[in-house]
Amino acid sequence: MPLTRDFKQTVVERVQREPAFARALLDEAASLFLNGEPATARVILRDLVNATVGFEGLASATERPSKSLHRMLSASGNPGMDNLSAIFDALRRNLKADIQVRAA
């Protein structure tokens, strides 16, 4: 029987080991939101939060309840633009990253 690893744990370890990977996930989440794939973007953001600031840290940074943030970043969540902006800003600051929009 082959050994397997938990995908989410692999993401956490890679984010902690490779800051460029964490920034790439943030970039991918932003691109997905802007290109009409919000459900996938929310799941990526959720994994990124778990691997970096955690939901309690995100709650502190965004001044929003942790449970609300969990719901917002679920696959069926529906964060408003103000909440989404606050989430991206908190992650961007934590990762020391800029988000730039480029036309394809």
Write the layout of secondary structure elements.
Layout lengths: L6 H11 L1 H16 L3 H14 L2 H9 L3 H7 L8 H15 L9
Helix pairs in contact: 1-2, 1-3, 2-3, 2-6, 4-5
**Percent strand:** under 5%
Sketch the major β-sheet: none
Structural class: mainly alpha
| Helix count, DSSP H or I runs of 4 or more residues | 6
| Uncertain parts | none
Element-by-element helix/strand order: HHHHHH
Anisotropy-based shape: globular
Q: Evaluate the radius of gyration.
A: 14 Å
The count of β-strands is: 0
Helix content percent band: 55-70%
Mean pLDDT, to the nearest integer, reads 90
Number of domains: 1
Distance between the termini: 45 Å
How would you describe what is shown here?
There is one protein chain. This protein has one domain. 69% of the residues lie in helices and 0% in strands. It is built from 6 helices and no strands.
